[in-house]
Design goal:
253 residues; mainly alpha; globular
Amino acid sequence: MLVLALSWGLYTLLPVPGGFGVVSLESPAGRIVMYAKQFSPSIVGLLVLAVAFGRRGRRHLLGVALNWRAPIRWYVLTIVAFPMLMLGTTWLAASASGEPFLATDTVSVLTTLTVCLLGPVGEELFGWRGIALPLLVTRLGDLSAAAVLGVIWALWHVPPWVTPSGGIPLLSLLPGLVFGASLSVLMLYVYRRSGSALLAGVGVHVVHNTSAFVVNGAVWMGAFCLILIAVGVAVRYAVRLRRRRRPAGHGPE
């Protein structure tokens, strides 16, 4: 929960709903706060490594976090198939609703770079999937670790949902929690099958943010497709785990 406290605390310094406006977004201090918030998962991850692990433990976890080696098919699936799935689902949702497919907002290059590249790197490299996921898997198992991390990941995104009156609309929070847990399970699947936490975390996250950034807000309709995929993966994992735990020679129930 340290990462939530750090992130939410930094957010309250900004002139945003629920914040105190201590620093301006255009000032150097404001930009430092924004980047510190964005990199808070990796900051906390490195802090945990420094305090809670010895030299061998740190070396092992850093090796897991920085491992980029994976079969080429997983890079193709991540870079090509995944965005095609998101964009295709969004196009169908936009066509059905009559909404425009592409985003109409104009944003700065710095914002684009932050959302699509620096954000996922700051969150994932030594944070969510780089350090937290391997540690949680050893304690909770695959599915529980992915679900717990997904909920925490979604809660980390809560501050921008705060309304001017200081409230949090449940209609925004609940789908976000489900989506975070579902996408986290999908990332776990890529991590387990590819063997690369870097690809599963930074790769999937960059592709997701980039795909979501270039289309209309109806992209969140595509979350339902991802949820279905995550449920399918979860069922497959549950069946496999059950088979592994079943004693040899044990017949069908």
